[in-house]
User: What shape does this take?
Amino acid sequence: MRHRKTVRKLGVKTAHRKAMMANMAASLITYGKIKTTVSRAKALLPVVSRLVTLGKKGDIHSRRLAFATLRDREILKKLFDEIAPEFKDRSGGYARIIRAGYRKGDGASMAVVEFLIEKKIEKKEEKKSKAGKKTEAKATKKSSKKDVKKTEAKKGRKKADK
Amino acid sequence: MPLPKRRHSRARGAKRRTHWVLKTPNIIECPHCHEKKLPHQVCPNCGWYKGREVIPITED
Assistant: This one.
């Protein structure tokens, strides 16, 4: 019987799943935001949560436990020194899942997983979205404002082309 | 082996299939770019969700 067994198997063997979770957690820590399927995202959350909790504790034992999952010193360092301190006032719920449409090849529902680290830049965008109306007026505003940033700068150009 | 005794009329089959109905997806307007999008999803057109950019969209 599988009563109260909550592991999401994702249709792969244990070793495959563990490796996949380690890779996804590593990517999330490296890039701060990853795109994956909704099921994988949901399976990833507890893994990430455990890692961040270890990161907040920060002693050598936690480091070793986290290293057992991550297997990468650089990423481990980033988790402990940069990401975990951001969450010192938050007890759980460190990452969020946002649904992002369906994959073309197989129709799997996709999602973006990201850490709940609020940046000042993002707050500015929030205000703009409330004030902003249609794309045209917005595009010009955006392209000028966003030239400072890397990815968004590209986007602003594209919108201005329209 | 059980076998059908009589053929079904077209009306019978048609009546059974009256419940094969496609539902319209609940499409909403993106508050950012005003394109049509699915609810609770990042807008595929502008990459925004809940008042901020989630996915940077580079090309069309």
